[in-house]
Each structure stands twice: as structure tokens, then as C-alpha cells.
TrEMBL record:
InterPro entries associated with the record: Ald_DH/histidinol_DH (IPR016161), Ald_DH_C (IPR016163), Ald_DH_CS_GLU (IPR029510), Ald_DH_N (IPR016162), Aldehyde_DH_dom (IPR015590), ALDH7A1-like (IPR044638)
Keyword Secreted: no
Gene3D superfamilies: Aldehyde Dehydrogenase, Chain A, domain 1, Aldehyde Dehydrogenase, Chain A, domain 2
Pfam families the UniProt entry points to: Aldedh (PF00171)
Keyword Cell membrane among record annotations: no
Domain Aldehyde dehydrogenase: 34-482
PANTHER family on file: ALPHA-AMINOADIPIC SEMIALDEHYDE DEHYDROGENASE (PTHR43521:SF1)
Protein name: aldehyde dehydrogenase (NAD(+))
Active site: E264
Classification of source organism: Bacteria, Bacillati, Actinomycetota, Thermoleophilia, Solirubrobacterales
EC main group: oxidoreductase
Length: 502
């Protein structure tokens, strides 16, 4: 029986913790129709001001005005603002992490890790502010130079999800700001407090650096009202993180007005475990990827494709670990798995497990619902990759499938609509290299799990994951526009391709 950590923290205690953290970050008194809740107790904490359609339009108009000034500020000077933001995030790391735990239900170490991502991306963006480089290409015409330059894009609309309530905003905002853009942020209504605290710190950094007002605006609103942000021709880029259903609604609306969309959507991530794998290493990587954050990461491992020769040994090891996972109040010292975000998440998990059993699966461990929004992470042995296995359920369910040949494992791995993150556990270099080429995901790992990406690499996936890239590498290009320049420094006017026109 999986150990259940008792709920220790009351709603009043959560409210007091949140108020202290909000005040430290510069957020004043709260009042409004949007209810900020905590999955730890399932109860409301505060009423938060909401934004109607006119408020969203005003935020966009203000951001557009600010952009006209911000775009002319030299990129290294823009980087100084992000540097100051990173310093404030470091100073208030514990405060923001407190709010992440309260609103998203993450255990404190994961919450602190998320805020560290914010700090890390600020460091990355500060360096990037001196490296927004184009290139020079040889011209076929004498006395001519051919080059490309990059310019600020405009207003960036950021739509973020509850599971990473601050990190995703920071990925977008730190990069957008050094690129010369402004931001209008629609956070998840489930995590409005973290959004208000993050925005307050950025506003403070802007004041201290003498930056224009309205570089970043938070609009706490519902999906219907957020369509104003999606449809506005004054929003150059919509960066949306969430479900595939959300992305399928957002992308056509942005495309209809010839805007840009950066989508980070679902992930039905899998690990292949080869016969040569270090099973102890694999087990550790699998458990965190599958059960960490209560299975509510876009990179959560949801499928385990194990070679027949080692399947029984690995499954036995995993079920033993799962049986001892400590579930409950994130503030309890021994908790490893906190709550699901809401009742809908719990119900989705129960429906998925029932369907898996109907499809011939066997629940080996976990799956039970506990008091409140707490569930036991489950491992389900499946005879085949049925429709429910091909469907992402945002909960801690790990489906186990077996294979005989690597080509079979790759086929199983790729046979889902999503293409975010993948991994293989093997000590055979040939197998590792083959998988790096064959996986159809945007993230492909060897001997680590599917979750826990670093900010230095571009983050994103293929297929119904949306094709977007955020965070590191050259993801900055999504936030700028490219211009190709031809400069004639000769006394002649030759045409390209040898064309004559006299």
C-alpha cells in the first residue's frame, strides 16, 4: 500500500503563507471575482481581479505603445533590465516557490527548481542580448554585400498553463524583452497569484532600470475572453502552452490574420529500455519522470517500452518503488507526490484507468483515489498500444509495453499523435545512436528520463505538440523578424542572375 502523507496545512495557513509571499514580491491587497485556490486543500484563498475584453484590448494597446519606445533601446541595455529581473527573482526565490507550491501543489524542491529556471533563463537572455547576430553572405554582384539583420517583432501574447505557472512565462518574457518586444500574459486562472507576483517583480525591475511602462501586462481571464489576445492584429506572436485542444483552437485563429504562433502542447512521452540498460539507473529516471509533479508535466513519462528479456525485472523494481511513494500535503517533509490540480484531473485519471482495464490492461500498483485531490501513481501493464495509451492523460499513469526488436520499439514509440520528449536506456552505443535518429520527438535523451530539460537547449516538440521552440539555443528567432539586406557600394548597378535591362 502506498504511504499517504497526512494533510497538515490548513486553508488559513495557506492563505497566510500566500499573503506573506505576495507582499514580499510587491503585490498589494487583492479583491475580485476570480477565485485563487489551492489543490492542497481544494479551497479558495483569495478573490483576484479579472480582465474583461476591454481590459485585454487596453493591455494590448499599452504594450504596443511601449514597444515603439522599447524597440529603439539597444539590446544590451534591454539585457540590463532582464539582469535586474534575475536578481530580484534570486532575492525572492523562496517567495515565488511558496506560491507555486500553494497554487500548483508542487513539492517545495520542485517549486524551487521552477523558480531556478526563471533565474537561469534570465542569465541566458542577458548573454543573448549581446549576440542577436545575423550573417553576411557572398553576393554574386561585384561591389555588393548581402546580409541579414534581425529586428524586434512587436507585442508577444503569452498563454501559459498551470503546471509550470512561472517558468514558461519567464522563458518567453526574458527572451522577448531582450529581443525588443513587449508582453501581454494570460496565465492559467488556476495560478493567478504566481502570475501577479512575477509581474510585480518585473514591474519593479523596469522602474529601477528606467524602462518604459507596460512592457509586461497580466490579464487574468477565461479562455473565451482570451480570444481577444489571439485575434488581435496588434499581437505579433502568440506563444501558447497547454492542451492539444487549446492549440487546435488557437492556431487557426492566429493563422487567419497571418500572425505567428509558437505552440507547446501535449506530450505522450515514452522511454525505451533496452536489454543492455542499467536497470537501477533506468528505474530512478523512470520514477521521477512518471510520478514527479503528480504526472502533470508536459514531459511526464506516460509510456514505458521495455525489452521482453528485462521487462519482468524492471517492472518488479518499479512496482516496489511505487508502493513506497509518499503522497500528500507538499509541505510534509517526506512527501514526494502532491495533489492533482483539480477534480477534473482526478476524474480523467479514473476514466483512463477504467478504459485501460477494459482494453485488457492490468493495474500493477496504485491508481486509487485518496481524500481530496490526491491519487496514487499507477503502473499498468498493457497487451498492446490501445487508443487510451495513445491519448495523453494529465495524471500519473505509466503504461508498460514490451518489444523484441528495436525497430518494433521505435514503431511503438512513434505511434502516437504527440512528439515532445523521448528517451532510451541502453549501454549499446549503436542502439542509442539509432534511437536519436529514429525518435520523432523534439527532445531525445539517452540514459535519462523524459523530463527535466535544461534552459540551454531549445524546448519543444513535433506533430500535435505544435512544433514550437522556447528557451535556449536559437529559440530567440521566433521573437524577432528577419530582413535580408543588399548593399551596393559600387558605382554600377548590375542585376542578379545576369539580367540586363537597358
Amino acid at each position: 500500500m502506498t504511504a499517504i502523507a497526512s494533510t497538515l496545512t490548513t486553508t488559513d495557513e495557506l492563505r497566510n503563507r500566500a499573503r506573506v509571499a505576495l507582499t514580499a514580491c510587491g503585490v498589494g491587497a487583492l479583491d475580485g471575482p476570480v477565485q485563487a485556490r489551492s489543490p492542497i486543500t481544494g479551497e479558495a484563498l483569495f478573490g483576484v481581479p479579472g480582465a474583461d475584453a476591454d481590459a485585454v484590448r487596453t493591455a494590448i494597446a499599452n504594450a504596443k505603445t511601449a514597444f515603439e519606445t522599447w524597440r529603439t533601446v539597444p539590446a544590451p541595455v534591454r539585457g540590463a533590465l532582464v539582469k535586474r529581473l534575475g536578481e530580484l527573482l534570486t532575492e525572492h526565490k523562496a517567495d515565488l516557490a511558496e506560491l507555486v507550491t500553494i497554487e500548483a501543489g508542487k513539492i517545495p524542491s520542485e517549486a524551487l527548481g521552477e523558480v531556478q529556471e526563471m533565474i537561469d533563463i534570465c542569465d541566458f537572455a542577458v548573454g543573448l542580448s549581446r549576440q542577436l547576430d545575423g550573417r553576411t553572405m557572398p553576393s554574386e554582384r561585384p561591389g555588393h554585400r548581402l546580409m541579414e539583420t534581425w529586428h524586434p517583432l512587436g507585442v508577444v501574447g503569452v498563454i501559459s498553463a498551470f503546471n509550470f505557472p512561472v517558468a514558461v512565462w519567464s522563458w518567453n518574457t526574458a527572451i522577448a524583452l531582450v529581443c525588443g518586444d513587449t508582453v501581454v500574459w494570460k496565465p492559467s486562472e488556476l495560478t493567478s497569484l504566481t502570475a501577479l507576483a512575477s509581474a510585480a517583480l518585473l514591474d519593479r525591475a523596469a522602474r529601477e532600470c528606467g524602462a518604459p511602462e507596460h512592457l509586461n501586462a497580466v490579464v487574468v481571464t477565461d479562455a473565451e475572453t482570451a480570444q481577444v489576445l489571439v485575434d488581435s492584429p496588434d499581437v505579433a506572436l502568440v506563444s501558447a502552452t497547454g492542451s492539444e485542444r487549446m492549440g487546435a483552437a488557437v492556431a487557426p485563429r492566429v493563422a487567419a490574420r497571418f500572425g505567428r504562433a509558437l505552440l507547446e502542447l501535449g506530450g505522450n512521452n515514452a522511454a525505451v529500455v533496452a536489454p543492455s540498460a542499467d536497470l537501477e539507473l533506468a528505474a530512478r529516471g523512470i520514477v521521477f519522470s512518471a510520478a514527479g509533479t503528480a504526472g502533470q508535466r508536459c514531459t511526464t513519462m506516460r509510456r514505458l517500452i521495455v525489452h521482453e528479456d528485462v521487462a519482468d525485472a524492471l517492472v518488479e523494481r518499479l512496482t516496489g518503488i511505487y508502493a513506497s511513494l509518499r503522497i500528500g500535503d507538499p509541505y510534509a517533509d517526506d512527501t514526494l507526490v502532491g495533489p492533482l490540480i483539480n477534480e477534473a484531473g482526478v476524474e480523467a485519471m479514473q476514466r483512463a484507468l477504467a478504459q485501460a482495464v477494459e482494453d485488457g490492461g492490468e493495474v500493477l500498483v496504485g491508481g486509487a483515489r485518496r481524500e481530496g485531490l490526491y491519487v496514487e501513481p499507477a503502473i499498468v501493464r498493457m497487451p498492446a498500444q490501445t487508443k487510451i495509451v495513445q491519448t495523453e492523460t494529465f495524471a500519473p499513469i505509466l503504461y508498460v509495453l514490451t518489444y523484441r526488436e528495436l525497430d518494433e520499439a521505435v514503431a511503438l514509440h512513434n505511434d502516437v499523435p504527440q512528439g515532445l520528449s523521448s528517451s532510451i536506456f541502453t549501454t549499446d552505443q549503436r542502439e542509442a545512436e539509432r534511437f536519436l535518429v529514429a525518435s520523432d520527438c523534439g527532445i531525445v535523451n539517452v540514459n535519462i528520463g523524459t523530463s527535466g530539460a535544461e534552459i540551454g537547449g531549445a524546448f519543444g516538440g513535433e506533430k500535435t505538440t505544435g512544433g514550437g521552440r522556447e528557451s535556449g539555443s536559437d529559440a530567440w528567432r521566433a521573437y524577432m523578424r528577419r530582413a535580408t539586406n543588399t548593399i551596393n557600394y559600387s558605382d554600377e548597378l548590375p542585376l542578379a542572375q545576369g539580367v540586363t535591362f537597358t
